[in-house]
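Sequence in, structure out. Go.
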Amino acid sequence: MIAIIDYDAGNLKSVEKALAHIGEESIITRDRQFILEADKVILPGVGAFGDAMQKLDHYQLIDTIKEVVARKTPFLGICLGLQLLFERSAESKGVEGLSVLKGEILRIPDCDGLKIPHMGWNSLSVKPGSRLFEGFEDDTYVYFVHSYYLKAEDDAIVAATTHYSTTIHASVEKDNVYACQFHPEKSGEVGLKILKNFASL
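Output:
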């Protein structure tokens, strides 16, 4: 069973639907015990970094997430869920992230001809050996919606990058922690394959 963490951050139903499409059972929950006992855990999310951290705190989910990670349960952050795993974000100065991974979230630099938020399909450059992208080749297209991007402290954890005004760390993997800035649940067959790879870990 896959637990999808519910902290009022939207986008949960589409993740649940995508998992059902690939034959995976999931439940949307904020119940600590259920999350800790799940085979795998997903932290989706859209919205602002500061608001999301406040909601995670309100629902007493911060320690739960850190315990899931410590237990080595496969954990996947999606979009805002990726950003929250890091230390801080330029979107919400002074707000501390989950600090599960080292790095910061920065605003995508303005660039002539490019709109912010970055919204739409972009190709990935995938690092060989990545477990989330097993069976994928470079220039695989996935769907993004974001104004802020990850700059990981350690390049070794970066599993895929994309370019939109700057180099964006689009996906990371470290031990049992995986995360995507893009939305696999909105990325067609490619996204379903990524979710299947995660479910198979």
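Check: The chain has six helices and twelve strands. Helices lie at 12-21, 32-37, 49-58, 62-70, 80-84, 188-199.
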